[in-house]
């Protein structure tokens, strides 16, 4: 590799590291404090960067929000898939969705669903953020659908999509209600309901 190529490579790596630092810093702030309550200056201060550096990577706060949503979703999908796959094949892998949520709830920084928190703060006509959140939820339903297809034998006329949507709704309500009550009983009860649905 030539000296010029080495310099170019180092600059690209540094650029990527700075961008990731901004995303991770904004993610912590948005999730903890809310999208509207987090200002650009706060992100800049927490990330330890100059304002020009932030705008070199993101054109707007909305762009940072989209990167935040993507970062949270990629981490979530990877972690929940890995968690479920460690369970014995069969019903336990489907019910593990709720076990994962229980572990998530017990973390000190649990603050509900980042998607629902964000969509509740944006204007109704903000299609970019709403579309990203809708796509994330569709992908989660697809993950549930794959879990069902790989681990259950459906015994009645309900479609795979219907099962997946029902379990998705149980999961989402468990997230919201455990956050509201600051207790994990909604997670345990929705897991019980899910067990009745799939057996």
Automatic annotation (TrEMBL):
Keywords: DNA-binding, Transcription, Transcription regulation
GO molecular function: DNA binding
Location of the DNA-binding region in this protein: 39-58
Annotated source species: Cellulophaga fucicola
Protein name: Transcriptional regulator, TetR family
Source species, domain of life: Bacteria
Cited InterPro entries: Homeodomain-like_sf, HTH_TetR, Tet_transcr_reg_TetR-rel_C_sf
Stretch forming the signal peptide: none
Occurrences of domain HTH tetR-type (ranges): 16-76
